[in-house]
Design a protein that fits this description.
four-stranded parallel sheet; 7% strand; Serine Threonine Protein Phosphatase 5, Tetratricopeptide repeat; Rossmann fold
Length: 636
């Protein structure tokens, strides 16, 4: 606060100046900075005004944004009293406002050397040190500011950001929480605290921060926007949409909220509305690569591939290094069958936060494939179980090129992958100081080998079931009937695209095929058995499958005793395909890239037959086609 109480002087000049300053302070309080500057424009520094009054005038001008006009007043005050603290601090702030970095640093240091102990000055100096990337000095300055004023929200928040940047998240969280405690209206402290918790995947704690802030910051659009993003992360899409609508009700020009709303609508399968939301974001912010890339995804899901590519290209025209657009365009190329072109940009998926790229602690180069001669290679199984089953086919080719190969994968997969890991070292983790010549992720092997559809078409089964288990399950299942394994549901985690799962009731037409025995390969099979009321009876094996530490071992043996496997797009299809079992796959209208488009077969698995939706989200047509095919197979 500016001090309007001035020492009285009998001279008219002093009285006139004091009155003008008092009026200017009132102008500032009323938000009329230009009027305050104008009111003081007829006055000039003079020794008889004294250091205190001249320094105060400088302060008024600084607060009004007239930094250049303020400097002579501070100079005059300091000429009268070189240790005048307001003058020393004010001169530093004037140079800071003028973006005169070196002069501001010199002025602050002169003020501190003279004895200035002002929390605001130390805070401003700390921010100046951050501007020149002197983080240690910035932290020291902020520490001094907080020593002088422990309940200083802006300084607490700034110090928290420094600690966060120095990989001290718990220290940062402590300071952010203190900033919120001492400054309940400090929106930035709320956003910083919740954002850090979100990065640590402590989503419910982050939501508690937002929900606690809502009553006091309910008129802030950015709070509702960021809260909507977090609800999206939690998979609570309907609530996320309400929060984002609240943000836009407060500020319809917030392009980020339109973008986020579009992302939620995509997850709600409301693609046309999502495209409109992305369009509104672009109308407000034409150079918005995130909006172009996100709209491209929505267009891709609708099968509008040319328009999707155009949006990915538009994003990259704005930012050629925009990794989301690169990864999205790569997956589009893979989906359209241009595998060599798609593989290169598929690698950008690791940088989009969609998945974490595993890597050795010790800096180690990436393996570049057959032309990169190394002796010791680390291969990380980096994606889900289905991907590990699919891409493990390339491990024998790696072993033929590299003398010492170590596969790092989940312990439960070691036994299932035994056929492709002969001669390899298979571990679930490596020591932090482990030394290798190169490293690569399992899902990157198609990229370094330059795999195309013609090469895949020559694929042969590369995994096998264990003979003893095959015999065990042969006795359990028997030989009666046409034996079909069923799996209808993948992961229900919203990030794994639950739209690929088939509602159990949608499979009811299969009951019309005579002579078929269905066995559940669904784990866990807490089955949505409403379909059984319509005649589809499934023998439940789930309680007996893979009860030990190893995954897929019993399931593989069961498949060896079946005539056919019918499944949605989940790990079961990759297991059946790797074993060479006949497998029929029910797919979404626009499936994952690996299933390509339109064709009813798969180059990845010669024994696979694909049944595709004709309309997104509707399973009647592919199930009807599959049922007719099953009738023919049983009759044959």
């Amino acid at each position: 606060m500016l001090n309007a109480t001035l020492l009285r002087d009998p001279s008219p000049t002093m009285e006139t100046t004091e009155a003008a300053v008092s009026a200017a302070i009132a102008d500032l309080g009323a938000g009329q900075a230009d009027r305050a500057i104008s009111r003081l424009s007829g006055f000039a520094p003079a020794p008889q005004l004294g250091a205190g009054l001249q320094s105060l005038i400088g302060r008024v001008l600084v607060n009004a944004g007239a930094y250049r006009r303020a400097l002579p007043w501070f100079d005059a005050a300091l000429a009268d009293d070189p240790r005048q603290m307001d003058g020393l601090a004010g001169r530093a702030e004037a140079h800071l406002g003028l973006d005169e970095t070196e002069a501001a640093i010199a002025a602050f240091e002169a003020a501190f050397a003279t004895g200035l102990r002002d929390a605001s000055a130390y805070f401003d100096y700390g921010m100046l040190m951050l501007r020149i990337d002197n983080k240690p000095m910035a932290l020291t300055a902020l520490d001094r500011a907080l020593t002088l004023r422990p309940a200083y929200p802006a300084a607490l928040r700034a110090a928290g950001r420094l600690l966060d940047g120095d990989n001290n998240p718990e220290g940062a969280l402590h300071l952010f929480r203190l900033a919120i405690q001492h400054g309940p209206q400090d929106l930035d402290a709320v956003l910083d605290c919740a954002a850090l918790l979100r990065r640590q995947e402590r989503l419910l704690e982050a939501m508690a921060i937002y929900d606690d802030a809502v009553p006091r910051l309910s008129r802030d659009a950015l709070l509702w926007n960021n809260r909507g993003i977090l609800l999206h992360d939690l998979g609570r899409m309907d609530e996320a949409l309400v929060s984002l609508d609240g943000a836009l009700a407060l500020d319809a020009t917030l392009a980020q909220a339109h973008l986020n709303r579009g992302m939620v609508l995509v997850r709600l399968e409301r693609q046309l509305e999502a495209i409109q939301a992305f369009g509104r974001a672009l109308a407000l912010q034409p150079a918005y690569p995130e909006a172009f890339s996100s709209r491209g995804l929505a267009l891709k899901m609708l099968g509008r591939f040319d328009a999707a590519r155009a949006d990915f290209d538009a994003a990259l025209a704005i930012d050629p290094g925009f990794i989301y657009a690169l990864a999205n365009r790569g997956e589009l190329d893979l989906l359209l069958g241009d595998l060599p072109k798609g593989w290169a940009e598929y690698e950008y998926r690791f940088f989009t936060e969609r998945q974490e790229k595993p890597a050795l602690k010790r800096p180690t180069p990436e393996w570049r494939g057959p032309t990169h001669a190394v002796r010791r290679l680390a291969v990380f199984a980096d994606q889900g179980s289905g991907d590990s089953l699919q891409f493990s086919r390339f491990l024998p080719a790696v072993a033929a090129l590299v003398p010492e190969v170590t596969l790092i994968c989940l312990p439960r997969l070691h036994r299932a992958l035994r056929d492709v890991t002969l001669g390899l070292t298979v571990v679930d983790a490596v020591a932090e100081d482990a030394s290798f010549d190169a490293q690569i992720t399992l899902s990157s092997l198609p990229t370094v080998f330059g795999v195309d559809a013609a090469q895949l078409a020559r694929s042969k089964p590369y995994l096998s079931a264990e003979a003893a288990l095959v015999n065990h399950w042969a006795a359990r299942i028997g030989t009666d009937g046409f034996r079909v394994g069923l799996c209808w549901r993948g992961s229900q985690n919203w990030q794994c695209d639950p739209g690929r799962s088939v509602p159990f009731v949608a499979l009811a037409p299969l009951a019309s095929v005579p002579g078929v025995r269905f066995f559940s390969l669904q784990m866990p099979d807490n089955a949505e058995r409403a379909g059984e009321a319509r005649g589809l009876v499934v023998e439940d094996l789930s309680g007996e499958l893979d009860r030990g530490a190893d995954a897929f071992i019993d399931t593989a043996a069961v498949m060896a005793n079946l005539d056919l496997v019918i499944t949605c797009d989940t790990s079961i299809v990759h297991l059946a395909g790797a074993l060479g079992c006949p497998v029929w796959v029910l797919l979404q209208k626009v499936p994952e890239w690996r299933w390509l488009l339109e064709r009813s077969d798969s180059p990845w698995y010669p024994g696979a037959r694909l049944f595709r939706q004709t309309r997104r989200g509707e399973w009647d047509a592919p199930v009807a086609a599959l049922t007719a095919a099953l009738c023919a197979a049983v009759a044959a």
